[in-house]
Design a protein that fits this description.
By secondary structure, the protein is mainly α. It is built from 3 helices and no strands. The protein has a single domain, classed as Orthogonal Bundle (Arc Repressor Mutant, subunit A), CATH 1.10.10. Helices cover 42% and strands 0% of the residues. Helix 1 packs across helix 3.
Length: 76
């Protein structure tokens, strides 16, 4: 899995998920992919990324949308 290619640090980019060591957020990469850009086109815009970084972004997003918080019932 590519999830090790994503970090969340409260001191970096406002705590948004990022590619480690870079100021490129998962949402920046996802926005380009959602807009129809190919991985090659994303690499042109962000030449310091690796192809695995690009595919880690949607993998991370898919994992996050599957998470949910389950409320714990409070005693009456």
């Amino acid at each position: 899995m590519g999830l090790e290619r994503i970090t969340v640090d409260a001191a970096r980019m406002g705590g948004l998920p990022c590619i480690p060591g870079l100021r490129v957020t998962v949402s920046m990469v996802l926005g380009q992919l959602a807009g129809g850009a190919s991985a090659d086109e994303v690499l042109v815009d962000y030449p310091y990324l690796e192809r695995a970084d690009i595919w880690a972004a949607p993998e991370y997003a898919a994992a996050i949308v599957n998470e949910r918080e389950v409320p714990i019932a409070r005693p009456a």
